[in-house]
Amino acid sequence: MDLTPVLSGFAVVFEPQNLLYCLLGVTLGMLVGVLPGLGPAATIAILLPVTYGIEPAAAVILLAGIFYGAQYGGTITSVLLRLPGEASTVVSALDGYQMARKGRAGSALGIAAIGSFIGGTASIILLTLIAPLVADFALQFGPAEYTLLALIGIFMVATLGSGSLVKSVAAAGVGLLLATVGLDPMVGIPRFTFGSDQLADGIDFVIVAMGLFGVGEILYNLEHRLRPQPAVLSFGRAIPTRPEWLRSRLAVLRGSVVGFVLGVLPGGGATMSSLVAYAVEKRAAKDPSRFGKGAIEGVAGPESANNAAATSSFIPLLTLGVPANATMAVLFGALLLQGIPPGPQLITEHPDVFWGVVNSMYVGNIFLLLLSIPLIGVFVRLLRVRAGILAPLTVLITMVGVYSIRNNVFDMFLVVALGLVGYGMKKLGFEPGPFVLAFVLGELLESSFRRSMRLFEGDFTGFVQRPVSAALVALLVLTVVVVPALRAVRGRQAAQVEHQVTTPTSDGGLAVAANRTEE
Amino acid sequence: MTVSDTRPAAPADAVPPESPGESAGVPQEAAEPATAPPAEEISPGGPVLATVAGAVPVLLGLVTLWLAHGLGLGTLTEPGPGLWPTIVAVLLLVSGVALVLRARGTTDTEAFTRGTGVVLVGAASLALYAFLFELVGFEIPTVLVLVLWLRFFGREGWRTTALVSVLTTAALYGLFITALGVPLPHLIVI
Question: Chain B neighbours among A 361-380 (CB < 8 Å)?
Fold first, then answer.
């Protein structure tokens, strides 16, 4: 492969301002990872308007840093409080917290940081090798392939999420519906605008993401605002001992591989890969009974995996223009906002952005290693920041940020309304993830579906007559059959992870399912 | 709030699945209440809420079906503007009906609490914020929202409230107006 664009990507990264944005991004990511409440998707959504004025490469470097930085930060609360800051660090709480109770918190945090670094870096290297091939292949995709890709993406996010399958499908349906508001993409007739000029252009993705993830989450946390402040376990230095490292190095390797593979899949991402990595470690261990009682592999494997997955989940977004999870959907919006449509042409038309962002992750991971080993004390101190102060700050940044996109007060009302929708969805057990992802993919799905139907002259069998689209149809059918079957297995299990970890977002299904076969 | 234990749930040193309800073979729903840790005040909603969760997609689907019909369906060869919304509406109807039918065994909703009132007041304060924004500039509404959220929602002292309110308003001014050059409506000119 031609290395010139890859190397010039490094030139982009090492511009002083981009280094600064990278550092800012990963630091913010650590912050939101540590502070429970706001996730990376919400944070990125809230910051979208602020990044509008920044150069494209710098903006995406910043936002991407928040995403993978949060994977490092979430570990801290998992280990020290058994309250995972992020869903993807839920399993680390199992053994991490037990280690902390035995005075080995420093080792747990240290191996998590080292594992994350190795997993993340390995994943970037693989991404560098694979992404150009995928993008090249995807250039020949037509509307039929995109219809199926979008369908697979939405379906997998709906099925692999932690909520109920039917609810996720319903949430995705609402997202698809909201995406049709505005002018019809083919014939230009206004749809569902109710005569409003404000709605004629459709609803901006940024507003949907900020409303559902940002305002929605803040309102939701407002209801349970007076939770007691948990006691933080103390620890010395965040470094594992030599025997601990020897014991966990294979776990780090296995976790990295699991994370990379699952991260690429739509709907996979960091959370699921960490669960699977935990199951893999438990199975690989000579004495599985140590797990849940402070086994260091139970921290090393999942932590390497979630970071590897966070990185590899960029592949579908940057090469196909199909986001693999909710956070990627928000980054999709960020690229659109910058006037750079994500897709197979991104790598050739905007090599500076593509390679700048990819290569910035090497630097970002080094920053994160420094932040989470020598500087970890600073972030631990942040655990004492009160949610009561944080909530109004974030909500006002959101409100002012929304206004700044179009200098339009209507958007502010819209974001509050969508925030209430997001709150209501959470109360009724609907995940916002499938909604937002379906909203993003809605227009692509509709217009490629309509184009394909024209192309095939109304004949559905056209989808199986092209080789690539036929393969995708097979994949879709496979997921429609296999995924519910997997869920049925896990429905019968009392999810072990959920019993041990104090979070409603945990999702231990696959991990438990995998454990079961060995017993 | 009646929480005496400030630590997050009892440490699980013991072998994890203890209660018989948690063994395999028993439907997950039955084991669910036992998983709720004592420190959390989140309680699951009942069948009524679960029915509402299904009724909302059904209603949305019906309204969409009706509106989409007016847009014109076209044919499969030449799809009209209403065809796609119709497909989506059917998806909503099917999933909504499935949710209503299974409402009895559903435990993934959350009961609305007294805190819901706070949420509504919070949302209303943001709507008022948007309303006042262009009328009187961003500074006064910003301070008002901060005071409401800090003092009354967050139970902070007056000193913290005053300090954070003023500093935040200044920081927003600095970030958006001075640094990013966004034309926010404002009273104070620097």
Answer: none
Distance between CA A33 and CA A39 in Å, rounded? 7
Contact criterion met (CB < 8 Å) for B123 and A420: yes
DSSP per-residue string spanning A412-462: HHHHHHHHHHHHHHHHTT--HHHHHHHHHHHHHHHHHHHHHHHHTTT-TTH
Instruction: Report phi then psi at A188, rounded to 5.
Output: 75, 20
What secondary structure does DSSP assign to B37-74, as a single string?
Answer: -TT----B--HHHHHHHHHHHHHHHHHHHHHHHHH--B
Residues B118, A225: C-beta atoms closer than 8 Å:
yes
pLDDT digits (tens, 9 = 90+) for B70-117: 888 888 888 888 889 999 999 999 999 999 998 887 778 888 888 899
pLDDT on residue A338: 87
Token pair in block for residue A303: 């932590």
Kindly state the helix (H) or strand (E) to which residue A262 belongs, with its residue range: helix A242-264
Q: What is the distance of C-alpha B65 from the center of its chain?
A: 27
Most distant CA pair in chain A: distance in Å? 69
Cα(A452)–Cα(A126) distance, integer angstroms: 33
Quote the DSSP letter at residue A190: E
The span from the CA of A490 to the CA of A500, in Å, is 16
How would you classify the pairing of strands A190-191 and A182-183? antiparallel
Inter-chain residue contact A222 with B115, CB threshold 8 Å:
yes
Q: Would you call A194 exposed, middle or buried from its count of C-beta atoms within 10 A (0-12, 13-18, 19+)?
A: exposed
Q: Is B152 on the interface with A (CB under 8 A)?
A: no
The Cβ-side half-sphere exposure at A83, using a 13 Å CA radius, reads: 21
Burial class (CB in 10 A: 0-12, 13-18, 19+), A142: middle
Span A434-452, average pLDDT: 88
DSSP helix/strand/coil, A69 = helix
Q: What is the token pair recorded at A91?
A: 């399993």
Q: What is the pLDDT of residues A211-255, one digit of tens each?
A: 998 899 889 888 876 565 666 777 777 888 888 898 899 999 999
Contact A168, A158 (CB under 8 A): yes
Q: What whole-number distance in Å separates Cα of residue A314 and Cα of residue B173?
A: 34
**Distance from first CA to last CA of chain A, Å, rounded?**
46
Cβ separation B88–A191 shorter than 8 A: no
Residue pair A214/A478 in contact by the 8 Å Cβ criterion: no
User: Where in chain B are the domains?
Assistant: 47-105, 115-179
Tell whether A73 lies on the interface with B, counting CB pairs under 8 A: no
Give the minimum alpha-carbon distance from B7 to chain A in angstroms, rounded to a whole number: 5
Residue whose pair of structure tokens reads 């309110």 in the numeric block: B165
ipTM: 0.79
Coil, strand or helix at A246? helix
Q: How near does any CA of chain A get to the CA of B132, in Å?
A: 10
* Among the ranges given (A52-61, A217-226, A419-428), the one the predictor scored with the smallest mean pLDDT: A217-226
The count of domains in chain A is 1
In this complex, do A458 and B130 lie within 8 Å of one another by their Cβ atoms? no
Host domain of residue A462:
4-518
DSSP letters along A462-503, please? HHHHSHHHHHHHHHHHHHHHHHHHHHHHHHTS--HHHHHS--
pTM: 0.80
Q: How far is B76 from A190, CA to CA, in rounded Å?
A: 20
